[in-house]
């Protein structure tokens, strides 16, 4: 009976140690990503999301290169739970890309890996300016002259309006001053009469 208890206790210790080892040594690896490994995306890529199967630390990094080995700049990296979100400085144009990642797991162990995807986005249309013909240039010159004449007419109207306003203000000021002088004279005469 005593041996059975010891055997059972030993078995529990071994099983507990195995369970702790599995939990403690569960390293962090990418199990999903957006874009996914091998995926062909039909729009420019501005953000990458790497989902890890275990917790990661902010020391995790990503390097994105194209088929020629040119590296693309990362604007911002954030850890949100088990997700590592990468904002790029510029959208990735059409081409094949390799993402190399290095993660520091919550358990303190480092892991690394890579995945690939393709961007097959339609090219942005570039609108070319049409050549300006002599006739178009003459029309544009005529329009500019008309606008300048119109601006000159507006300035003349504005100056005339300013002069009218100025004349009206001068008359108003003269009227107020005259009113004050007359009122002062009346007050002076009344006060002299009362003294006499």
Structure commentary:
This protein has 196 residues and is of the alpha+beta class. Among the domains are: 25-119, Immunoglobulin-like (Sandwich); 166-196. The chain has helices at residues 2-24, 134-195; strands spanning 30-34, 40-41, 45-52, 61-66, 71-72, 74-80, 83-92, 95-104, 110-119. The chain has a 5-stranded mixed β-sheet with strand order 2-9-8-4-5, with no helix packed on it. The protein has a 4-stranded antiparallel β-sheet with strand order 1-3-7-6, with no helix packed on it. The chain is elongated, with a radius of gyration of 42 Å. It starts with a helix and ends with a helix. Residues 27-119 form the CopC domain. It is found in: Cell envelope. Keywords: Copper, Membrane, Metal-binding, Signal, Transmembrane, Transmembrane helix. The chain crosses the membrane at residues 171-190.
Largest sheet: 5 strands, mixed
Oligomerization: single chain
Low-confidence stretches: 7-15, 17-24
CATH architecture of the domain at 25-119: Sandwich
Structural class: alpha+beta
> What is the helix content?
40-55%
Estimated share of beta-strand residues: 25-35%
End-to-end separation in angstroms reads: 142 Å
- What's the helix-strand series? HEEEEEEEEEH
CATH class of the domain at 25-119: Mainly Beta
The rounded Rg comes to 42 Å
Fold-level CATH name of the domain at 25-119: Immunoglobulin-like
Protein name: Methionine-rich copper-binding protein CopC
Domain CopC: 27-119
Signal peptide: 1-21
Main location: other
